[in-house]
Amino acid sequence: MGLNWLKYLEQHVGDDDDIEEVEVKVEYEDGTKKKWIFTDSQDPVYEDGEDEEDEEDDAEGDDSEDDSDED
What we know:
By secondary structure, this protein is of the alpha+beta class. It has helices at residues 4-13, 52-70; strands at residues 21-27, 33-39, 42-48. A 3-stranded antiparallel sheet has the order 1-2-3, with no helix packed on it. A hairpin with a 2-residue loop joins strand 2 (33-39) and strand 3.
């Protein structure tokens, strides 16, 4: 993938001072996941492994779809 995503982000976001937070999620071919959260008020936050909140959100979304199919 290279750094094309970074060039795109720089071109389209640039120096936008209204942005409060940027999350960068990376998933490797082997399934490893990493996430960085950048804010202007603190150093970047690094999370290694799977994001449990995303899994819970996905599960809730799947349940609501299943419920609508049962009606």
